Amino acid sequence: MLLKWAISDTSATCGKIYLPTIAKEITEYSIPSLGIVGIIKGNQIVITSESIVSISSYVANFKTNGVSVSVDGVPQTSGVTSNSYLSPLTYIVTGADGSTNEYTVQMVAPRVLGGGSLRLWFKADQLTLNDGDPIATWSDVSGFGNHISQPNASLRPVFKKNQINGYPIAEFRSATASRMDLTSGAVGLYVTNSGSVFFVIKLIDTITGGITLLNLHGGQGREISINHPISQYLVCRNGASCATISALPIPKAEFLTVGSVQVLMSTAREYWNGSLKAQVPLSYDYSGGSIPNSLYLGNGNLDADLAEVLYFNTDLSEADVQKVFFYLNTKYALLPM
After folding, report:
1. In whole angstroms, what is the distance from residue 236 CA to residue 179 CA?
2. How far is Cα of residue 19 from the mean position of the Cα atoms in its chain?
């Protein structure tokens, strides 16, 4: 019998009692046919793929220190049992004493969400650089090839390893006017005025002069910003005005995933780590963007670390929003706020 040992204080003895805890964990999880290794955080396991455009049934490989594993009452055999990943799976691991442990396994394929509306996906862990290297090009893995770059070496953000749950970040600093651009040729950024955007970010500071996270289509286009000095998240029409959604200050010097969903010319919602913070009326029309097919990440005034950025060219459903957060929260070990 495989045992773990827990330490407990008792009021009767004021001493330590070592209690055996029966092992019943999933320690590794993967889907070999897709070449994907699951990310395990606590009792959550996320499977994500940059390339798949539909979700089906797959056979998983897993390791456990329990005596048996089941899904919906069906015994699971690593490398043999197939399951549909269209919905989250609940894995029940049974220990040697009959006690159980429950895991939620969910496949999140961003290219599938929002009817295939993903248009930008920047991941710092996709960059193959050494710690402290400047970032000349950041490839978009959405499938639309909206890659951003910075030809001016003095304006490049910096790659930093092991910054959040073992993952790297892109360090943007106003002192070096860090920014990355695609000046022309961006594909598919607008279909309607709806849009959903998510940032895994650690805000360092705010400064005067307009702090832009992401801008699509330049003047009069969609812009996501942070104000000064309160550090509120803003949804803007560049050159026109900005809307404060939650009016809550984004905390500094700690990572979170902040995101927003705009629904046509009617409303916008703001989320932190999957928790809805507020919804307000919003009437921005981006059809008059003056520099179509362009984008920039940071505008030289941004003091922040970015680990991941996703933009969808539609208003994601609440179910899809929560899938994005399940992926990001699990990967980066973030908790609801």
Report:
1. 19
2. 38
Tokens encoding 335: 């908790």
- Amino acid 16: pLDDT: 58
- Which regions of the chain are under pLDDT 70? 1-20
CB neighbour burial string for 188-217, b if at least 16 within 10 angstroms, e if fewer = bbbeebbbbbbbbbbbeebeeebbbbbbbb
245: three-class secondary structure by DSSP: strand
Q: Which residues pair with 268 in a beta bridge?
A: 262, 280
Q: Which two tokens stand for residue 205?
A: 């500071």
Distance CA 261, CA 280 (A): 11
Tokens of 90: 């609940």
Residue type, 215: N
| Tokens describing residue 125 | 């862990």
Q: Is 165 helix (H, G, I), strand (E, B) or coil?
A: coil
Instruction: Report the C-alpha gap between 300 and 208 in whole angstroms.
Output: 11
How much is the pTM?
0.91
Task: Give kind and range of the element (H or E) at residue 321.
Answer: helix 318-332
